[in-house]
Amino acid sequence: MGSQRNAPVVRTCVGCRSRAAASELLRVVHRSEGSVNHLVPDPQRRLSGRGAHVHHDLNCLDQAVRRRAFTRALRIEGPVDDAAVRALVESESAERPTPAHEAGRDRMKTTR
């Protein structure tokens, strides 16, 4: 059988539900302070605990928050504070080109 060692690690974005290499996604972990649940970005993928992945894209982040995908993926209850993740994604969105998973959407739009 062939070796799987050189295959890239693939994860699913909790926002748009598309699969991508883990290196293209932002890992997010959960930290709680009392009754407040915080989403913490983990760009180096080193923090302990269960992680959820999202594209470096505000649309994907908004979808994940709206659908409460982080609470399901991280197995937490109650509202979450996504301020730290949102700040990181917003700062990166100015620097990054259009994400590959959205690059073709403009071509798919039709006008009448």
**What's the number of domains?**
1
Q: Which stretches are low in confidence, meaning pLDDT under 50 for 5 or more residues running?
A: 106-110
Count of DSSP strands: 6
Mean pLDDT: 86
N-to-C CA distance: 52 Å
Measured as a percent range, the helix fraction is: 25-40%
Task: Provide the CATH top-level class.
Answer: Alpha Beta
Outline the structure in words.
The protein has 112 residues and is an alpha+beta fold. It has a single domain, classed as Hypothetical Cytosolic Protein, Chain: A (2-Layer Sandwich). The chain contains four helices and six strands. The protein has helices at 58-66, 69-73, 83-93, 105-108; strands spanning 10-12, 19-21, 25-33, 36-41, 51-55, 80-81. The strands form two sheets. Strands 5-3-4-6 form a four-stranded mixed β-sheet. A two-stranded antiparallel ribbon has the order 1-2. The chain is globular, with a radius of gyration of 15 Å. The protein starts with 9 loop residues before the first strand and ends with a helix. The relative contact order is 0.19. Mean pLDDT is 86; it is low at 106-110.
